[in-house]
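#dry-run=false #mode=assembly
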Amino acid sequence: MTAAVVQVRALCKTYGAKVALDAVDLQVERGAVFGLLGPNGAGKSTTFGVLTGWLGADAGVATVLDVPCRHLYRLAGKVGAMPQDAAFPRMMPVEETLVHLARLGGCSAAASRTEAARVLELVGLGDVARSRGFELSHGMLKRVALAQALLGAPELVFLDEPTAGLDPAAAKRVKDIVRALAPRTTVVISSHNLAEIQEVCTHGAILDHGRLVTAGSIETLTRRGAEVRLEVREGLPLPTAALEAAVPGAKLRVERGVIEVSFPSTTDPAEIIAALLRVLLEHRVPILGVQRGKSLESAFLEATKR
Amino acid sequence: MWHSVLLITRHELAVAVRTRRALFVSALYLGAAILGGLAFVVLVRFFEHEVVARLSAQGMGGPAANLDVLGAEAYQKLAAFFAGVEPEAVAASFKNAVVVPFFFWGSLVFLPFLIVLSSFDQVAGDLQSRAILYPTLRARRLAILLGKVAAQLVLLVAVSIAGAVALVAIAALMLRGFSVVQALPAVARMVVLLVPFGLSYLAITAFASVSTKQPFAALFGAFAIMVALRVLGFMSVIPEDHPAAWLRPLTWLSPSTYQSGLWLDDLSGPLSSVAAYLGFAAVFLTLAALVLERRDL
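#status=ok
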């Protein structure tokens, strides 16, 4: 088995005349929490659908744990997925549905009951095990859907917009669960919520118009190892020449009270920050903030040219 | 895969028990069977009394008191009327069990509609709500399809047996000369024959159900296929010297063509009909499986 648990090569998918995926290449390493990002219509839901085997690709190769995505049932119990908008069965007690899904995933009858109870407790819904689907709120059903994805402690979990529609406390619980899953479990998250992706993901890919724009670690995407931003009081004269001299080989850009410094990723950002702060303090420039790299939102907007 | 089929069948049965529509359709079938059977029994009993009364009026009270109307030729002709075959060709077990042929005839006529009404959304409903996404990571789509169809088949058999038992009970209580022991082979034969018959219509409905995400489009599609197949069954009425006589063989593509074979005493009749119904089931289940395997969910 390769280190990559998800491999996608030259993946294409069209809906009539609309190209949803155009030769997408992607790789998710074992143990990563991988974020799929993109504006509406970028192709992330289609990518998610192909990876879970719910959608068929027109061309290209997509494998999960070395199995073609269309046959993920062969990995029963090793892969879990939480679809965004799939209704959870309404008439059955949620516990019964979870037991059924756990059994389909390869658990014994007794282990399935234990698993159902475990995952419901994990998402904070142990007390509604006997409730039927229609008796639960949207947010609760969302958490039940997350619970079913975690049945049997899978090696890989796909989560589509896992916190959409959840209140802040429930969203935090979901993010805590995701953090706790890695690195034993690889997680692939599709989300619009860039702050959430930046918070919980270790890696990510940005899609736009069905194409892969960029992919890599969140550190790389946000240039945390190759860029620092210092916010100073706006309107004061800045010692630009001294700053440039302090960080040879780096590029400085000053705009409306923000000093952006790009440098080779081989350089230690701590040294760059220390050198810049020294100069600014010497010249008595009021410093309001220091940030490594840029926000994922900025990276996203730059990558998608929006 | 068969373990998954079994698990899905069990789960679908549990879901069906909790679904009001499935219960409603089952109750409708049972209610219609019991009421229809009751009416039939009352009618038979009326004739029984009429015949005895007339014979008594003619001074034949002794023999009339022991008259076995149920075994009379008139009743056998009635059974043949339901079967649509010659009286002597009807299976002996059906001739000996009043109400069972009536119930069998009613099932052959109405069961296809009840099957469509109770199972048109067995897959389409899950496709529309996307609930089908949950099991597809854990079981083959074919297993999901077979599990759902098997659950419907179990329900069908259960309801058929329940209906037949109710009718036999009514007949035993209301008809003199009705023998439960004599009726049992007919009931067993009927239930066994209804399984492949019902399975063929379940397969047709399943094919319609996997072909669309809209349950009502599945309902319409299932009825459309049934009507189209029924029309093919009428091709046999085209005279052999008619220019369109080349269409006559199409009648073999209709399930209705094989209904009369189910009534026959000669085993080759029911066996060939059962084979035909299993063939229809296999064709439509294969088509349904191919569509479900290839479609986007």
